[in-house]
Write a structure and sequence with these properties.
There is one protein chain. By secondary structure, the chain is mostly loops. 9% of the residues lie in helices and 10% in strands. It has a single domain (1-74), classed as Herpes Virus-1 (2-Layer Sandwich). It has one helix at residues 33-39; strands at 22-24, 30-32, 52-53. A three-stranded antiparallel sheet has the order 2-1-3. The longest helix has 7 residues, at 33-39. It holds the Pfam family DUF1272.
Length: 82
Amino acid sequence: MLRLRPNCECCNTDLPPDARNARICSFECTFCEACATSKLSGMCPNCGGELVRRPVRPATKLDKYPASTERVFKPQGCAMAS
């Protein structure tokens, strides 16, 4: 089950479970759409994988299957994809 991390690793923007601008790779590294497209060119800086839109968990399932509260943030920012 997806962890649904609560923020962008690059800019620390909040990404709640219903965020339609959240992007993830297959390892669930999480970024906002702006960073994923403008800074990372759609590629995860951690693993090199493709960043795709994160699915939205239905609100009715969040009580039983809550989103993660673990924030992953890299204060140095993210490197441009090369």
